[in-house]
Amino acid sequence: MLDATARSDSGLVRKRNEDAFRLLPDAGIVVLADGMGGHRAGEVASEMAVQKISDALVAQLHQSGGSTAQGGVRQAVELANQAIFDLSEQSIAYRGMGTTVVAGLFIQNRLFYAHVGDSRLYLLRRGRLITLTRDHTLLQSLVDQGIFRTQREARAAGISSSKLIRGVGLGARVDVDSAEIELEPGDIYLFCSDGLTNMVTDGMIGAVIQESLPDLPRAADLLLELALKQGGTDNISLVLARPEIPVLG
Prior knowledge:
Blueprint: E1 2-9, E2 19-24, E3 29-36, H1 41-64, H2 70-90, E4 98-107, E5 110-116, E6 120-125, E7 128-131, H3 138-144, H4 151-156, E8 177-182, E9 188-192, H5 194-197, H6 202-212, H7 216-229, E10 236-243
Helix pairs in contact: 1-2, 6-7
């Protein structure tokens, strides 16, 4: 169902890569997570998230005969949240661990997606890059409340762009944003961690993908290379996906 490619790199500063992803093109599943926590706990949280979510979505597809809905992706994230939180409560080494998540399920002519945190989902459609998710960060919240007019203004006032107000595994329950979108021929979807978006502007991301088409692996390589050249201060992970839209009727 998907023509897709993925890249993940620890970057130039971090010793470990706490990002994780699952890409199951035949099932139309993409899950990407950016972990956080103490010694190796971030790696555990992100790996658990992508495994639990992808397994839950595969099970749903088998049980439903290939049809599911937006709520199914949200429920998969909620299941992962419970599993990560339970483990963190059982082990001091994992106490307080969590992760961001962005997950998508491509079925027929629709994409069902859900996210928590500041990992993002973008759509490149007819040459225009569209952000489909909204960061769950203190910075974005202050902008939404009108305290600052722009993210740039908030950062200039000393507000960190990495301070999360939601994360998977941080509590027994999690508020998951979910939505769906109808696919169009030529759509390109980008799932990525903030290691990319903190280094590369949306304008640059859109230009790189557009100029690389139809070669998705080249676009992925260039995006990773650009993030590293801009400093590579965090782990960098991305998945580029082009859905194969079936002819219905």
